[in-house]
Structure formats: C-alpha cells, structure tokens
Write a structure and sequence with these properties.
This protein is α+β, with helices and mostly antiparallel strands and 395 residues long. Helix content is 53%, strand content 13%. The protein has helices at residues 2-34, 39-47, 65-77, 81-100, 103-110, 228-233, 237-263, 277-308, 317-345, 347-350, 354-367, 372-384; strands at residues 119-122, 140-142, 145-155, 163-169, 179-185, 191-193, 207-217, 221-222, 265-266, 271-272. It has a four-stranded mixed β-sheet, with helices on one face. A four-stranded antiparallel β-sheet has the order 2-3-7-6, with no helix packed on it. The radius of gyration is 21 Å and the shape is globular.
Length: 395
C-alpha cells in the first residue's frame, strides 16, 4: 500500500513539474504586469488530470489525496502565487460538491473538470468583514427553487470561473449559522463582476461578485438548506491550500535570492554577494524559516491523513486549530522571508521584477480571510476556553 502511494506521489511530482516549467513559470511575470487571469495554466493542469486531484477515479479524478494536493499547490506558488490561489479555490469548490453533492451534481459539475471546467467558492460579504462564514444576505424561496440577490466582496476567479459555490443565509434564517450553498453556472445572466486592481496576486481576479435576481433550481442547492455550517466547519482544502501556497512562495523567494547572491559580483573587490558574511547570515535565516514551515506542513499532512482514515473520518479539534495556526504562521513567515530577500538584493529587488512581485504577492496572505489578526483572536479564545463558536461575535 505504501509503495502504491509513493508511486502515485512520484507521478504527481512529474506531472506538476511539466506544467510548472512549460507553462506556469514562463507566464508568471506577464500575468502580474497585465493582470491576466491564468486560464491557460488551469487548462494545462486539467490536461494532466491535476484539477481533479481529490476527486475519485469514477469522476475522472486522480484520487491522490491531500498530500498530493499540497505538493501541487506548493510547486505552482513557487513561481505564480496567483495561479496557486486560483487552483486552491477550485479544488475547495470541487471537493465541496463531491462531499455534499448528489450523484446528479457530481455528473453535471465534476465530470467536466478534467475537460478544463473549473470552479471557485464565493463567501465573504462587506457587512461581516473578514468573517467570511457570516452572511447577512438571504436566499428567497420561489415556486421552483430560489432567488439570490446579494454581493460578495471578494471572489477568486470572479468573472472567469465556470461555476461558483455561493454561500448565503438560508431562507427565513434567524441565526448566523443557518447557511445554505448554491451552485451557480458562470454564464448566468444575473451575475456581474467588479474590477480587480490589487497590490499583489494580480492574476487571481478576486473581485466582487454580484448576483441580481439569480434564479436557482432546487437541483443546484448543495446539500440541504442549513447545511452551510457543516460545509464551513469540515472544509480542509481552503486553509491547507493557503498554507501550502505561502510555503511554496517562500521556497520560490529563497531559490531566486540565493541564485542572485551567487551570480552577482562587486567587481571592485572581486567578490560575489555570497562572499559577505552578513549576506550568508541572512540567507541562512531565510532557509531556517522555510524549513520550519515545510516541517510543520509535513506534520499536518500526516495528521490529516491519519485522522481522515480513522473510524470517525473527521479532524480532531486540535488538528483544526493547527490548520488555522499554520495559515497564520505561513503567511507571516513568507513576509519575513520576502523582507530578507529585499535586504539582500537592495535596489535590484525593489525594481519591478520577480522579487518585487513576490514581495507584493506575500502581503495577500496576511489579509486573506480570516485575516491573521482575526485568526489569532479566534485561536486564542479557543485556547483559553472563552468560546470555540465561530458564529458568535468575534471582534
């Protein structure tokens, strides 16, 4: 069994390396400068079967598990964090449909994934800030389904996804945890999309998404009315994917700055940057930060694999806390490494280019929901025992 898993992971490494070096890495700077959505990258990933990495084989997926998903997200983000985030949100959306959807929904939405169709989730609203699991919007019953009128403040792949998993309050909900999810076709005429003009990850197009009189049939309700809380609380791919993206970006920054330190020379004293003790010390500091990230991520992978295969098939509360903690730590750490890279490269790193792009991209991790300050508050309340309920006021 172990040999079979290792063989599959070796195959995943080969598949993603092909896509990264042939398609993703060469286009990364252009995507950032011109704010181009990385659809070609998603198509290349689909051609290798990687867009269905968590899906079972009977739906055309690889059924490769979370460890393989994290490998792919890391390797993508080492070159293009925008694509890494788009990929993460797609995997989360597809996983939600697989875990909570009907066979008919599996056939309709998941089988075409390997043909290049991809999705995303849409949750956050301005009225609740970084608490993306809290919605003040409400679905409305109609004679044959539901009507949605709402605005989402940030939706990755907004305007480009083939389908959206939209979270909103259930009809007649009177508590914040009474949520429902709906699957919306990307071509629905009631959808409109805002502009994406951001500091970093400029290719992921996380602009607003507005639904105006969007009609949804009962067949496109995901799970049941009120199942939203369970969908939120059992999601693994989102936080794990974010942590993997920032870990991958940290590795990409180190590779880039190490190469720069080796090849850049001060000709007046005939020394490379690597000949200076202070530069070597900074590089070592960055590498140690990164090794700490990868070690924790590998530990999380092992914990998740073990717990999902035990009798309950659920994550323990301590592992769920670790997921949130790792999101905080990974996004904080990649920013420390990005700053070290700037210190090493000076004016060169500050110029528009790869390191400057990485520096901007890293900032996104701190504010992506839940923002690090909010996430630390949630975690601290859980640790102290004040409250472990996300659905009460958190501020």
């Amino acid at each position: 069994m172990i040999n079979k898993i290792e063989t599959k992971l070796e195959s995943i490494h080969s598949l993603i390396d092909d896509v990264v070096y042939q398609t993703i890495a060469p286009s990364a700077d252009m995507l950032d400068r011109e704010k181009v959505f990385p659809k070609a990258n998603l198509q290349a990933l689909a051609a290798k079967g990687l867009n269905g990495i968590l899906l079972p084989e009977h739906l055309g997926g690889l059924h490769a598990g979370y460890k393989a998903f994290l490998i792919v997200a890391e390797k993508i983000a080492a070159h293009c964090p925008s694509t890494g985030l788009v990929y993460t949100m797609h995997v989360e959306a597809a996983d939600a449909i697989y875990r909570f959807g009907t066979e008919e929904q599996h056939d309709k939405w998941l089988k075409p994934v390997q043909e290049g169709r991809f999705g995303t989730t849409s949750t956050s609203e301005r009225t609740s800030g970084g608490r993306y699991w809290i919605n003040t919007s409400r679905a409305k019953h109609t004679s044959d389904g539901y009507e949605l009128n709402l605005e989402k403040s940030f939706t990755t792949s907004s305007g480009f996804a083939d389908f959206y998993i939209v979270q909103t309050g259930s009809p007649h909900a009177d508590t914040s945890d009474d949520l429902s999810y709906f699957i919306i076709e990307g071509t629905n005429p009631g959808l409109s999309f805002g502009n994406w003009d951001a500091l970093g990850v400029r290719g992921n197009h996380s602009s607003s998404l507005t639904l105006n009189n969007v009609q949804v049939t009962k067949e496109n309700l995901l799970g049941s009315e009120g199942a939203g809380r369970t969908i939120v609380e059992t999601s693994i791919a989102y936080l794990l994917g974010l942590g993997s993206v920032w870990t991958g970006l940290a590795g990409g920054i180190i590779d880039t700055v190490t190469d720069y330190a080796k090849r850049n020379h001060h000709r007046d004293v005939d020394k490379s940057l690597g000949d200076y003790q202070v530069i070597r010390s900074l590089l070592a500091k960055a590498v140690i930060h990164h090794k700490g990230l990868t070690a924790w991520l590998n530990q999380l992978r092992a914990e998740i694999d073990h717990e999902l295969h035990n009798e309950s098939g659920k994550l323990s509360s301590s592992t769920q806390q670790d997921l949130l903690s790792f999101k905080i730590h990974a996004s904080d750490t990649v920013n420390k490494i990005a700053q070290i890279a700037m210190d090493i490269t000076g004016g060169y790193g500050y110029k528009i280019g790869k390191l400057e792009r990485f520096y901007r991209d890293a900032r996104a991790g701190i504010v992506m929901g839940p923002s690090n300050n909010l996430a630390r508050e949630i975690l601290a309340k859980q640790l102290i025992g004040i409250s472990d309920d996300l659905w009460k006021e958190t501020s």
